[in-house]
Hints:
There is one protein chain. The chain has helices spanning 13-22, 65-69, 89-101; strands spanning 2-8, 26-28, 31-38, 41-48, 53-58, 74-77, 79-80, 83-84, 86-87, 106-108, 116-119, 128-134, 139-146, 149-156, 160-162. By secondary structure, the chain is of the alpha+beta class.
Amino acid sequence: MDWFLLQTKSREELRAAENLGRQEVETFCPMIRVEKIARGKRIEALEVLFPGYLFVQIGDTSVSATSIRSTRGVSHFVSSGGRPIKVPSGLIDQLQRRVSEQEDQVMSSVPKAGEKMTIMDGPFRGLDAVFYQPDGNNRALVLVTMLNQQVKASIAFSSLAAVNDSVI
């Protein structure tokens, strides 16, 4: 039984996996728990590790490649030279182990209150700041020290970078 990689339609990985499961095709869609900001609040969500892709195992079954390609949610097989690319089963085993080991862990790109940051662009570029709280989905309130006082400023998340406290 060989594993192959399917490209799915946008945000339809789980739909494709469900529909393939009804055809008795084994699928693997690695998921991770992430912390993100939605509507100004921190939330935990389960997200697809490889958005737009799904692994399928095909062997000597009655399900054909054409049937798989025409399944709702599936776009096409990832291929090279017109032939679907086989994914090593060792890689799938390793991914399955890693996902199950990290099942209870939450990946987060959202800074914690009090975390030291550097402002990368805009009028405050180059200044150090302290993360205070999220300010909507794309901005953060940070404390910037100016004239020996801490001032709150609303900065885009894309303009902030975490300060590495390690000494070289």
